[in-house]
Please model this.
Amino acid sequence: MDLAKRIADMIAPTIEDLGFEVVRVQLTGAKHPRLQVMAERIDGTGIDVEDCAKISRSISAILDVEDPIASEYALEVSSPGIDRPLTRLKDYTTWAGFDAKVELGVGLDGRKRFTGRLMGLDDNDMILMESEDGDEFVLPFDDVQRAKLLLTDELIAAVTSEQT
Model:
């Protein structure tokens, strides 16, 4: 199990007890490591700076005791933002109808990068996408290396209307 996954498993219960859920845990930088924790409210309402500070204080205590990272690192707690990463199966149904970019670890028919409209998931938890020219793709969730929503006027309008 990789370190980011171990850390996510370690901190998720505490974050959930606070009323949030983990969107992504990512460890970057070799010389100056940074542990990025993205979280959102379980009820779907917005997350603010005070929420991020509360999460940071709570998980810092766990990380200090468990000490999963050998060197010094910076802890960053944030919301996923509008052009959020798609890291969980539910993200592909929640954000169906919006444009996204998906990168696979292993190519599908010689191709690793796909951009288009998310169409949800099929019965086997495969990601359904449609390109601008109408091509349909069925992508294996287990092979996704990176995926994120694309910032469009449509997405901004949808997120803005949810917050009012």
